[in-house]
Amino acid sequence: MGVPLMVDIDWNLERGLMENLSVHLGVDLRELIDVPREGLLEGDRVIYVGHGEGFKRRDPKPEGVGGFLRELAAAMDEAVGKGRYKISFEMPTPPQPGGEPKPRMIDVIPDFVWWREHVEYARSPKLLPRGDWRVDWLLGVLFKSEEADMVYLDFRDPKVKVVVSGCFYSMHDSCELEARRRNVLVSSLGKAKKLKERYQSNPHVKWVKIVFAPDQEEVQKMIITVMDPAGMLTTSESQIPG
Q1: Residue 67 has pLDDT above 70, yes or no
Q2: What is the pLDDT of residues 210-235, one digit of tens each?
Q3: pLDDT at position 207, please?
Q4: Beta carbons within 10 angstroms of residue 22's beta carbon
Q5: Do 109 and 159 fall within a single domain?
Q6: Among residues of the chain, what percentage have pLDDT more than 90?
Q7: Are 144 and 207 in the same domain?
Q8: What's the distance, Cα to Cα, between the start and end of the chain in Å?
Q9: Which segments within the chain are labelled E, that is strand?
Q10: What is the count of structural domains for the chain?
Q11: How far apart are CA 84 and CA 1, in angstroms?
């Protein structure tokens, strides 16, 4: 029997990322996403395809973490009031014995892990999050103090870019809310796959970004930004029912 990584989440270290997520979502993820056949790299709770220089793990030093959290807490006290916020920090996972520590999702896409960044990207006029973007495909999870998020992106097609993200576990969820989270993510992945196939064959589209991510109220949004051959941008947004 595998050893759980977190006390409150059934995450089996003897299973791979795809298997663990499939268990949590109640579906075979391989039926909902297009998994690359070549170039797939495995990190710590992330699998990805990249190009250029490889990604390395960057763990913070203990003294740096303590100082950073103290500064962050002081800033939050001043901004919103003492005790009126929650700070989540992902502690490093111990490396496997005898091996180099593997990169996590926050090492591979450090500026593109959070929902807010996905929504901002969806509404922006840029096709890629950054000019030096080097990730073609990724599936990963981020464990926070009380929740776990999933991020999926497929940027392999030069014309169609896909991002799906959201929370798939919260320690405070009822069984009903847990099922709703699962259904929203599964629905988002299925819709994203169909939309990608539709836009790939659309001659009236120069490029398109298809993003499913929670907004500030944690409501799952579908945001589609399309550039037509004349260079005109159109963005549409709708809510994914839970």
Answers
A1: no
A2: 999 998 778 999 999 999 999 999 99
A3: 98
A4: 17
A5: yes
A6: 61
A7: yes
A8: 33
A9: 4-6, 9-12, 41-42, 46-50, 135-143, 147-154, 160-170, 207-214, 220-227, 233-239
A10: 2
A11: 40
- Do 137 and 164 lie in a common domain? yes
Do 96 and 206 sit in the same domain of this protein?
A: no
Domain coverage including residue 178: 4-52+103-239
The string of DSSP codes covering 112-153 is S-SHHHHHHHHHSS-SSSSTT--EEEEEEEEE-SSEEEEEEE
- 166-210 pLDDT, tens digit per residue, is 999 888 888 888 889 899 999 999 999 999 999 999 999 999 999
One domain, residues 82 and 148: no
Residue listed under structure tokens 């399309």 = 226
C-alpha count within 13 angstroms, C-beta hemisphere, residue 81: 1
Nearest CA-CA partner of 146 in 166, 163, 167:
167
Whose tokens are 């002081």? That residue is 74
**How confident is the model over 92-136, as pLDDT tens digits?**
455 555 567 889 999 999 999 999 999 999 999 999 999 999 999
Rounded to two decimals, what is the model's pTM?
A: 0.81
Residue 237: count of CB within 10 angstroms of its CB: 14
Question: Cβ neighbours of residue 162 under 8 Å, at least 6 residues apart?
Answer: 152, 153, 154, 155, 192, 195, 196, 210, 211
Same domain, 129 and 154: yes
Calculate helix-pair angle for 17-25, 175-200, nearest 10 degrees: 120
What is the side-by-side strand order in the sheet with 46-50?
A: 41-42, 46-50, 135-143, 147-154, 160-170, 207-214, 220-227, 233-239
Quick one: pLDDT at residue 5? 41
